[in-house]
Amino acid sequence: MNIQLECFPCLFNQTLESAQLASDDREIIREIIDTYAEMVPEIGEESKTLEVVIEMHDVIEEKTGVSDPYADYKRKNIETSRSLLPEFKKIIAQAEDPLFSALLISAIGNSIDAGVGLEVDIESNLGEISKGVFVRSDYGLFKKKLKKAENILILADNAGEAVFDELLLEELQEIVDITYAVRDRPAINDITMKEADMLNIDNYARVISSGSPTSGTMLDYTSEEFQDYYRKADLRLAKGMGNLEGLYEEDEEIFHLLKAKCGPVSDLIGIDEGELAFFLND
């Protein structure tokens, strides 16, 4: 997905937020913002938002010495999400279709996105589970393909929602072999191997690094190991807007699971901001 005009202020806010988390030195923060401002005229219509994120992450780390500005934010989100797990386990246990409920909870958990702002009320967003709606849904097709599949590759997104992914993995692990791919290095609040180990994701799935250095998945930036799993997967499930942006134009079948949190993504997939989608790429 190429960069849209609406992406520029979002990238500015993300850069400022990351810089402020990494440093309280106003001079350094200003230098980081100035670097982004100097980049803007050089960003063409064919540029990728995720590539800009890589460049700005490198700038922030170089100027502040901090490689993971969102470390505390991720930790707090994981703690909050864990406190809600027992209630959502009950919901899934009582559901007519536990797999559907697990997917829905996983999608609602996708609201925890530092890429669009730190102010997220996790409990309030997860209250949406009562609505039980994917505005765009290929769930029936997913279940049909799942019956024939031997394995699935899941591309994870943020660290807080990964707690709720455990519920989805519990439902899937009796059906297919699962590979769960995380970011190669800290990228906003996305899950890395560090958080995956903390959450014991390997109790449910094989955990690998995608090799991706940004808050999404662009195949050219991924490792050979990841690409091997990607090509051989019977099913692919990509979570969140970053993975959608990076993979939307790929030829392989990919189910996308997300909450739309910005205009360009909402327009791309044909739903309104704040709505949930679970669909197979066209």
Automatic annotation (TrEMBL):
Show the Gene3D superfamilies listed in the entry.
Uncharacterised protein PF01937, DUF89, domain 2, Uncharacterised protein PF01937, DUF89, domain 3
Damage-control phosphatase ARMT1-like metal-binding domain sequence ranges: 5-275
Task: Spell out the Pfam families in the cross-references.
Answer: ARMT1-like_dom (PF01937)
This chain belongs to which protein, by name?
Damage-control phosphatase ARMT1-like metal-binding domain-containing protein
Q: Which organism is it from?
A: Halarsenatibacter silvermanii
Lineage per the UniProt record = Bacteria, Bacillati, Bacillota, Clostridia, Halanaerobiales
